[in-house]
Amino acid sequence: MEAITLHQLILLAIVQGLTEFLPVSSDGHLALAEHWLKVSEGIRLPVTVFLHFGTLLALLFYFRNELAMMFRGVFRGDIEGRKLLIWVVITNIPTAIIALALKQVVEQTLGTPKFVAIFLLLTASLLFASEQIAANYKNHQPLDWWKAILIGVAQGLAVFPGLSRSGTTIATGLFCGLKQKQAARFAFVVGIPATLGANLLEAKDIAEIQVETLNLAFATLVTFVVGLIAIHWTLKAVQMAKLRWFSAYCLVAAIVAWFTG
């Protein structure tokens, strides 16, 4: 069995916690970090799945009010909660179909720096364009079924390392005319089933990691705390129309990845 050091695990936990929610692609950065830290190929996917668990906990905690509202929609007749749940389900149907269809392709290309660079460049373009378009909207549009499907398609395509899940779904929401706050919060809420599904799908690989239980628990805590901070920063950035900062970052990261890969 292969091992990963505590030092490597903590660094990867910080990278995952930040980039899972900042619109800069967690899989892309994690793949690059694993490449530069020389994490052995055999345990890259299990480590990725494990770190996703920490960010899933951050999502569940930060958006506990939305989750409670959906719960009330099912069991207590809360109309707004029921509507939100319906939108989340509709969004994740195309996500699941696309993600499962692309799973093998992603696994074959995961960790290739030049591949990551191409999709980081696409993320940069989406962030910049969506912010420019959102700034010109005078009448924001409500969420409906076709917007939910488009956001779900975008989320499904974001399985490619370098194509940010949060950035892609937020940008799609802005393209569809949603208000900045709604686009950002909805993008995170619909990511909960997708993140949970990805963890369950690959959960068996976690058992292959040769590392102390205490190290795993500490790395989970690091990812959780850093993830909460990253969610807060991203929501603020979207509402303040500062996505271009992340667009510029992704552009620089793409160049670095291309020439150092």
Task: Describe, in short, the structure shown.
By secondary structure, the protein is mostly helical. The protein has one domain (6-260). The chain contains twelve helices and no strands.
List keywords for this structure.
mainly alpha, 0% strand, globular, 261 residues
In words, what does this structure look like?
The chain has about 260 residues and is mostly helical. It has one domain (about 5-260). It has twelve helices and no strands. The chain has helices at about 5-20, 25-35, 45-60, 65-75, 80-110, 115-135, 145-155, 165-175, 180-190, 190-200, 215-240, 245-260. The chain is globular. The relative contact order is 0.21.
